[in-house]
Amino acid sequence: MKITTFAQTLHDLNLIKDQDLDEVILGHKDFSRFGKLKTQDLIQLSQRARELGLKVIFEWDILMTEGVFENVIAALPSLLEHVDILRVQDPGALEWSLANTQKTLQFIAENGNHNIVALQGWIDHAQGRLERIILSIELPKDIIEEYARNLTVPCELLGLGRILLFYTPRQLLSPLYDDQKLYHQELIAIGESEESPHKGFPIVENQHGTFMFHIKDFCLIEYAQELSQRGLHYFRIDLRWSEMTLLKDVLEIFKNANPEKFEAFKLNYKQELMKGYFHVNKTDVLFPKLKNHRLQNREGNYLGEVIEAEKGSHLAIQIKNPLGLKASDSLKIVHPKGEEFSVKIYSLKNLALEEVEFVGPHQTAIIQFVGGVWVKSHVFLEKELATNL
Questions:
Q1: Domains, the chain, ranges and CATH?
Q2: According to the model, what pLDDT value does residue 353 have?
Q3: How confident is residue 206, by pLDDT bands cut at 50, 70 and 90?
Q4: What pLDDT band is residue 300 in, cutting at 50, 70 and 90?
Q5: What is the 3-state secondary structure (H, E, C) of the chain?
Q6: Residue 325 — very low, low, confident or very high, per pLDDT cuts 50/70/90?
């Protein structure tokens, strides 16, 4: 497995070369969400990278409106000769690159591409032009292995870096400042929730919008050897928010899998670290808890659901049983909290408030009010009345 990383200065390039890496990612401020390089700086770094024998990957990961897209593609041709590979995220950028360049491509599939059919679809669409696909950090390790072994191009995964939680193209921080000179400069703030104790979220605003990150950074460097054995081809280290000098420590842990060195690294790293969903993705674990288990049973004599309860007046029941409801029926009503009521009907009306002997399926029945019954209570037919309310 190979390491890939970012450079923002000539010093960064030297550190990358010292670690025997063979490629570098460069981010232009107009094309990269977090790139800071101006055109001349990028050309200078690209030339130096090539002198050092490094492949130059040009990061084009902004999401674009039509106006922004037209502006950046007008500036791109003058940069293409200085880069070896285009790394894109916006499908429009991928389409333009396929139609207008002969460059090798990498596709960032971190957002909204979590199944192997979608990922392979992008690969097939590129018709042999993709050399790499970048996977989401939301995938657990077994899925990473499946994708890495079965997709027809090499896969890359973030090994160390920030976790993006929220993005908007709007500038949310600059309106808080009176100084208009700050417009299109990078602004940094720390966010906290008014509704919970969570705080410390790094927030960055630049010309591309506002980005909020997790309070902890994503880190899998202690599992690098395991990921390599599982078939992963590339491991991305993003130190743009930290110190580039940490690259040496990361590479030592990567090569030797030394637990003691990793613990020392964590102590020196300025953010707390987390593994995300690497071991298991439990984002759906709360779904059963969000559902009321008392109201899950709709089998047997299930009749329908209380949709209105008017105190001292009536209950309205939506009939979902294909047999309907007769005036002679007895009911069992299950409250959302679990309490049960046995009810003998002595008043059955339709929606026209006419006394009837029968209300059919998919209609609404009006019966007498029963104290303690709420909307969403489930109603069952009961042959024998247990308690006369």
A1: 2-163+217-274 (3.20.20.70), 164-213 (no CATH), 294-382 (2.40.30.10)
A2: 93
A3: very high
A4: confident
A5: CEEEEECCCHHHHHHHHHCCCCEEEEEECCCCCCCCECHHHHHHHHHHHHHCCCEEEEEECCCCCHHHHHHHHHHCHHHHCCCCEEEECCHHHHHHHHHHCCCEEEEECCCCCCCHHHHHHHHHHCCCCEEEEECCCCCCHHHHHHHHHHCCCCEEEEEEECCEEEEECCCCCHHHCCCHHHCCCCEEEEEECCCCCCEEEEEEEECCEEEEECCEEEECHHHHHHHHHCCCCEEEECCCCCCCCHHHHHHHHHHHCCHHHHHHHHHHCCCEEECCCCCCCCCCCCHHHHCCHHHCCCCCCEEEEEEEEECCCEEEEEECCCCCEECCCEEEEECCCCCEEEEECCCEECCCCCECCEECCCCEEEEECCCCCCCCCEEEEECCCCCCC
A6: very high
Residues 315, 368 contacting (CB under 8 angstroms): yes
For 288-316, what is the mean pLDDT? 78
User: What does the angle CA 226 – CA 232 – CA 234 come to, to the nearest 5 degrees?
Assistant: 115
Label residue 192 exposed, middle or buried (CB < 10 Å: 0-12, 13-18, 19+). exposed
Residue 337, burial from CB neighbour count under 10 angstroms (0-12, 13-18, 19+): exposed
Burial (0-12, 13-18, 19+ Cβ within 10 Å), 109: buried
Which pLDDT tens digit goes with each residue over 146-169? 999 999 999 999 999 999 999 999
- Global pTM value: 0.73
Give the per-residue pLDDT at 258: 79
